[in-house]
Amino acid sequence: MLAQAPARAPFRVNGLSQITLTVSDVARSLDFYQGLFGMPVQARQGSTVLLRIGNGPRFLALRPAAAGERPSISALGFGVQDFSVDGAMKALTAHGFSAAPPTADKPGPKQTLVRTRRQNEGGSPDGSTRDLFAADPSGVVFQLHDVSYCGGSGALGNVCSMAERSPKPGLIALKDTSHFTIAASDPNTVPMYLDLFGFAPMVYQAATPAWQVGSGVHFLMFIGGGGPTRGGGAGAPGAGRGGAGRGADAGRGAGGGPARAAGIDHACVAMESFDPAAVTKTLVSYGLKQQDGQGRTPLVTYISLRMPNRGGAEGGTPELYLTDPDGLAIQLQDVKYCGGGGFLGEACPPLPPA
């Protein structure tokens, strides 16, 4: 049976607040995302640039890769109601998290890391700006912060000066974040999110739940082996890249090889009036190569049709992907997209009680 979310979770979240990309060249990625989406710079944290999504304070962060570090979608974030770092640390400790070593630059599985941002990293000069990071049992990093967090200064990180306008108008206007698909390796991963946040399924793609984040259409989906599905057992090996997933072998590597490493497979952002043909035409005009397959080489775009056997529409729900200069995959859908049926993936009728 599907694991039940606790009646009283310690954190109440309003949605997915951020997408952090670790990139090989921040200037190149900044030019790419601003040229495509016209995103203003909301804040700067040293060499990390935070681009505003929609009206903010949600953002896309571009962080420079360290020497030897591979580009990746390296973190997600949750906006937490009534947030405080000390209160959150107490709750995480009560749920089995431990502090990362003092020399760590990021938390390991089931660890926390509190980083004080000084003025040179966009924080307050008095050291009152503290950012809290944690990692789930599979090692995927997430940040917890107040719903007003913009990546700036102040105790809540919610003091940001006027945004820096994009030097380019952009071709597509983003309105919101949408979802993350996470390749999880530890079967305790999904139960951890349920314990901390009280997530419940919003819709299913075959047996794989889309776990609703907040009260809107944001969600998380897990592939690989992160926890229970509707049919029972561990993981969601039937979900992969198309939609939140691409089929029966998505938990394996190319050619049926070993399972992919744990991490964020792709992130999704949302726009109004989504038209996959028109968006594809725009992306091709921007220099991306249209392809039929689902490869992740840099600067390509493709559409995957999610069929009725995975909750899609008759004829398929079109789900559009693009890759950036580092080959990081971003899905782009309508603001009404919830991972369900219908042409826009917007049909998510209420589920019966579990």
Spell out the blueprint of helices and strands.
Layout: E1 13-23, H1 26-37, E2 41-45, E3 48-52, E4 59-64, E5 72-80, H2 85-94, E6 98-99, E7 111-116, E8 130-135, E9 141-146, E10 174-184, H3 189-197, E11 201-205, E12 208-212, E13 219-224, E14 263-271, H4 276-285, E15 289-290, E16 300-306, E17 317-323, E18 329-334
Provide structural commentary.
The chain contains 4 helices and 18 strands. Helices cover 12% and strands 32% of the residues. The N and C termini lie close together (9 Å). It is mainly β. Residues 234-242 and 245-258 have low confidence and may be disordered. Strands 2-3-4-1-5-9-8-7-6 form a 9-stranded mixed β-sheet, with helices on one face. Strands 11-12-13-10-14-18-17-16-15 form a 9-stranded mixed β-sheet, with helices on one face. It has helices at 26-37, 85-94, 189-197, 276-285, and strands at residues 13-23, 41-45, 48-52, 59-64, 72-80, 98-99, 111-116, 130-135, 141-146, 174-184, 201-205, 208-212, 219-224, 263-271, 289-290, 300-306, 317-323, 329-334.
